[in-house]
Every structure is written in C-alpha cells, then in structure tokens.
Amino acid sequence: MAELLLYAADRAQHVEEVIKPALEQKKWVLCDRFFDATTVYQGYARGLDMKLIVTLNEKASPGIRPDITFLIDCAVEIGLERALKRNKIQFQEGQDRFEREKKDFHEAVRKGYLHMAMEDRERFIVVDGTLKEDELEELIFRHVEPYL
Predict the structure, then answer these.
(1) Domains of the chain
(2) Long-range pairs for 50-59 at CB < 8 Å and ≥24 separation?
(3) What is the pTM for the complete model shown?
(4) With CB atoms 3.0 to 4.6 Å apart as the test, which of 55, 62, 105, 115 could cross-link to 101 if both were Cys?
C-alpha cells in the first residue's frame, strides 16, 4: 500500500510540475511509464484493490491520458535480462527491488499489460520486443509519424 501511495504522490507532483505545463504549451510529452505501470505492478502483480488504483491514478493525473501507449512485449526472461543489463550500466549494480521479485510476479505484470492492451485497443499498440532495435524503432515510428 505504501508503494502504491508513493507512486501516486510522485505522479501527481510530476503531472503538476512537468506534464501539465508542457501540454498547456502544446508540447509533446513522452513517458517511459505512466499510470498503466501502477495498475499492473501494484494491481495485477501485488493484488491491491483495482478500484483504489483507478481512483488514485485519476486523482494524480486528472484528465490526462496517453494518446498512444506502446507495449514492447517479450518473454519475462528476456525482459529481466535486459533490465539487469540496464541496471548494471546505470547503477553499477545488479537487481533493483522489482528485478528481485519472483518469476510469478513478472508473469503477472506481463499478463496485466497484455490484458490492458486487449481491453484498450484504441490506445495500446503491442509490438514484438524481440525485434532488433532498428526494426522496433522503425515500427514505432510508423505509428507516431501520422502525428507529426
């Protein structure tokens, strides 16, 4: 519960100080993660009350929803391997607290994201995370290009 509330508080502050002002200036805003991450990590994976999560997400980012959400999907093992590699480069260490979770947790996260993508096909675009970086970049750009 504390983790959920901390993420909601952080998001509320980030929305107020960064995202809303940028949107008001008609700027594009790209987020690595947003409220969907809270829904899957704290809801689907940790089993917290989904109604509470939806309420907190709405309060923390009132009226702000992504136009497009790219779900870069891959097997849990591949995702964990990439996260560990990223962490090693960025933090000079191995696992953070999410990477230390059991495989079942990560399977629940992936399943939650895929469920959300299926439920909101208008917003979610699921792409194959096993593609080479240049192929993935090209595929994502094709979806973004109409907005340019």
Answers:
(1) 1-64 (no CATH), 67-148 (3.40.50.300)
(2) 52/4, 53/4, 56/4, 56/5, 56/8, 57/8, 57/11, 59/8, 59/12
(3) 0.86
(4) 105
